[in-house]
């Protein structure tokens, strides 16, 4: 595809599949990291407390979404390379718009067991400030948040694929499952069914190393995993620099020392200011 075709499709559909964006060597390294931390998949908590691996925190949004290794950029060199990976960073910069600079709002590695899924969420109707998607024939893109979902293994039927509704980032109509008591909500929650059973969704099958690059404004979620085994994915969410940090993890000195200036600017686009710095 040339640039015009890519732009057209992203505007129209709200997503792109970037095939084989991650090379085999990097994939092997990522999967080796997951294997080496399998105990955290099985036992993500000690009592009520999340476990930490250095500055990486094991976390879940709920019982159904699996284990999220949050702040995975602290997990080692391979995760640092993903920050400004050539497979997608230029597209993210372009669609967020260079005047906004990119930052990473949230980054995690997810491992999801059989039965795991996500509820349906988002859509053009939802008023979350970063669910914007603008391309009003001005030639100026302004996309509030772009999710880069990386498949570490093949994700096919029954593997709990991401599901989405192409074009739904543009709709003002509320998806029927997100209409509650006559009002649109941002996300369905417990009591709802897995997003894979929702009206109008498309299952997004990926090969290991493929990336699903999508606006967070699109109506999406995950189908239930019905196959044995675990789904492995990584999500880096790119936004304008003003939106840095869902959880506000404090960067370790070790990571700060290792980061290239370009990567540091993505993780810390607005350096802290204090009178001590002037001393
Ligand atoms: O886990 C998935 O398949 C979807 C993830 C998701 O909803 C997101 O990245 O915003
Ligand atoms: Fe999502």
- Total count of strands: 18
Instruction: List the strand order in the largest sheet.
Output: 1-16-11-18-7-6-5-4
CATH class: Mainly Beta
Number of helices, where a helix is a run of at least 4 consecutive DSSP H or I residues: 7
> Looking at CATH, which topology would you report?
Jelly Rolls
The termini sit apart by 53 Å
**Which stretches are poorly predicted, pLDDT < 50 over at least 5 residues?**
none
The structural domain count equals 1
Q: Specify the helix fraction band.
A: 10-25%
Structural class: alpha+beta
Which kinds of small molecule does this entry bind, naming each only once?
A: 2-oxoglutaric acid, fe (ii) ion
Mean pLDDT over the residues: 96
Task: Give the key terms.
binds 2-oxoglutaric acid, eight-stranded antiparallel sheet, 279 residues, alpha+beta, 18 strands, Jelly Rolls, 7 helices
Question: Care to describe what's here?
Answer:
By secondary structure, this protein is an alpha+beta fold. The protein has one domain (3-271): Jelly Rolls, CATH 2.60.120. It has 7 helices and 18 strands. It has helices spanning 3-13, 24-36, 38-42, 77-81, 89-96, 253-258, 261-267; strands at residues 15-18, 45-46, 49-50, 52-53, 56-59, 67-70, 102-112, 118-121, 133-134, 142-143, 145-151, 162-164, 179-180, 183-184, 202-204, 211-215, 220-222, 231-240. The strands form 5 sheets. Strands 1-16-11-18-7-6-5-4 form an 8-stranded antiparallel sheet. The chain starts with a helix and ends in a 12-residue tail after the last helix. 2-oxoglutaric acid is lined by residues 118, 147, 149, 162, 216, 220, 222, 233, 235. 2-oxoglutaric acid (AKG) binds at residues 118, 147, 149, 162, 216, 220, 222, 233, 235.
